[in-house]
Amino acid sequence: xxxxxxxxxxxxxxxxxxxxxxxxxxxxxxxxxxxxxxxxxxxxxxxxxxxxxxxxxxxxxxxxxxxxxxxxxxxxxxxxxxxxxxxxxxxxxxxxxxxxxxxxxxxxxxxxxxx
Amino acid sequence: xxxxxxxxxxxxxxxxxxxxxxxxxxxxxxxxxxxxxxxxxxxxxxxxxxxxxxxxxxxxxxxxxxxxxxxxxxxxxxxxxxxxxxxxxxxxxxxxxxxxxxxxxxxxxxxxxxxxxxxxxxxxxxxxxxxxxxxxxxxxxxxxxxxxxxxxxxxxxxxxxxxxxxxxxxxxxxxxxxxxxxxxxxxxxxxxxxxxxxxxxxxxxxxxxxxxxxxxxxxxxxxxxxxxxxxxxxxxxxxxxxxxxxxxxxxxxxxxxxxxxxxxxxxxxxxxxxxxxxxxxxxxxxxxxxxxxxxxxxxxxxxxxxxxxxxxxxxxxxxxxxxxxxxxxxxxxxxxxxxxxxxxxxxxxxxxxxxxxxxxxxxxxxxxxxxxxxxxxxxxxxxxxxxxxxxxxxxxxxxxxxxxxxxxxxxxxxxxxxxxxxxxxxxxxxxxxxxxxxxxxxxxxxxxxxxxxxxxxxxxxxxxxxxxxxxxxxxxxxxxxxxxxxxxxxxxxxxxxxxxxxxxxxxxxxxxxxxxxxxxxxxxxxxxxxxxxxxxxxxxxxxxxxxxxxxxxxxxxxxxxxxxxxxxxxxxxxxxxxxxxxxxxxxxxxxxxxxxxxxxxxxxxxxxxxxxxxxxxxxxxxxxxxxxxxxxxxxxxxxxxxxxxxxxxxxxxxxxxxxxxxxxxxxxxxxxxxxxxxxxxxxxxxxxxxxx
Lengths: 115, 692
Known about the structure:
CATH architecture of the largest domain in chain B: Alpha-Beta Barrel
Radius of gyration of chain A: 13 Å
Shape of chain B: elongated
CATH topology of the largest domain in chain B: TIM Barrel
Strand content of chain A: 15-25%
CATH topology of chain A: Transcription Regulator spoIIAA
Largest interface: A-B, 34 and 33 residues
Helix content of chain B: 10-25%
CATH superfamily of chain A: STAS domain
Number of strands of chain B: 27
Largest sheet of chain B: 8 strands, parallel, barrel
Oligomer: heterodimer
Number of domains of chain B: 3
Distance between the termini of chain A: 32 Å
Structural class of chain A: alpha/beta
Number of helices of chain B: 14
Structural class of chain B: alpha/beta
Shape of chain A: globular
CATH class of chain A: Alpha Beta
Strand order of the largest sheet of chain B: 11-12-15-16-17-18-19-20
Number of strands of chain A: 7
Order of helices and strands of chain A: EEEHEEHEHEH
Distance between the termini of chain B: 92 Å
Radius of gyration of chain B: 27 Å
Largest sheet of chain A: 5 strands, mixed
CATH superfamily of the largest domain in chain B: Glycosidases
């Protein structure tokens, strides 16, 4: 899985470049983003603007990443397309995952927390 | 504030999972929730759903914290929907949601996407841990959901006991009713643990098996809580066939371990555990009943319905009929039985309305029902006791010809009826009594079965207790709230001279004698005797012969022993000890019936005339002692000429007409008869003699 990492205001933005986040890429997604968390990243934005389809496996990978975010850190989703937003609602994960229209807005929200 | 520290559901879900959390394809088998290394595999069958979701709940949470739609391309194999969830531990609760869009046959596919569905393979069920709760507003039953349990239990060397059926004495009891009464004196009344506390009593009584009224999760609410105390107390409204009833646990959530501890305690005392299982219908009721599990998962697979209208076919009298000979349902039933044997160590099953299990998908009675054959021939169940209630609620009566493959035993309803007829003095009953005492060869010999395939009983949970059988001629069911319409009106009972409680000492004495006579004949007959709990002490239900809804003192066993109860208990215990000592009463084969000699009042002369109300049964002993049973249902004493013995003499083991302690003489203390050649049998009495 191709993931573009950038840092902004103390927040890491991870942007998967594949169109699907599902069983085929979920494990790789977890490993690579988990590596960043292990390396000390506390605040993470998952920019899903390029992702057209997420299934239960992909969603569970996001939850696994969320589980690894340290207690004094945070995670937000950004740029989710319609299918992904609907899935997050359908699975009731909108109560856990914070969604923002753009990566900038997500960074801003997390940066405020981290400040 | 950090989002990770936000209060509410987020914390809860994240507490539930580990960083390894992943929802993966999973395996289609085994069905249900299965612990595997690193997570839990979930699998459920629905042949007609177009989508299925898996719902997860933290323990006790009111709503799911996550719902994963299962992808038909990856999470479906055939008609099994499955997923493996890594990073999840036991204790998590789960449910399914299912639907079909578009639904080609709404009258057959009764999906309700609003319903959170209980897994038919659930081994533990959360949501109704206490007795007597009412469903919340908007619900017909209390919402229940499956809980993933760890099977680990320190069984040590425990395993099913495998007593020979011929040596068995079954004691039918209700787990709650047995110890709920304050007089039980147990620390955990009304629970599996409370029953375990009473095992020493059962061992001392001399029974070899307990048969428990349904202990799988059921709904006791009748939806009529304003008419308290009406509740489905007995338990014949099953919701989850693999799950011990949560409310039978003393410690909330401990029902699986406490059931196992009960089995272990029983086994340590040499007592087997037989479960009354309800596979003929479920607690989801008729078409308008609550959707809990099977109806919402795959209605047309699990239930028998008219294909044109979708109306349920009802052979159970309970609104629906489980489609038992559908391959998917056969698998459910067989898996369930194997689970109870392999994981819970139970020794046998009594199948409620078992004749339903012999009907095909359209309700037609099958000659060789696949399900019954599978159960009979299953290698895992090869030593498990299989007892059929060989009739159903639609008029099918198969006592004596239940499809059996030499394996199935039956509740012998004819034994009950013929003993009742004889002991209430009906004419023409001496022949039938003899047939019943000799093991009902008329019913079981032809099909290759033996006397022990006849489970003999005079009373069961369904009908009068023994005390009421001799105290009431009519049912008295007003307390059930149906104006006395419910319950069987054909009880073949006789009140011994007055209806209900009587201050007349003569009536009381006759009732006591007749109870003892029933017990003596039941416990000396060939076959497997079954006692109803409390009959050994004269428990009354005040004439209520259908106490399914009486969760109160009508049904609860009162452990206080009055003088009469002490006498009856001693009598019963003594007869059970006699039966255990004398293999002649526990024959394993019919052997052509050459081992029994019949007579009337005259020596060696049977009297099968319609007027005869007297029977003598002599079991010549050979190397063992001779045994003689005398039974009289007439109103006058009978002077019976006894068989002449060579180098032996007749001694009195028991006489139902005598008072304690003369009524029952323990081994070695049996007094010689004053007149070795004759014995006078009192009216309505039964006598047991031993010759050595």
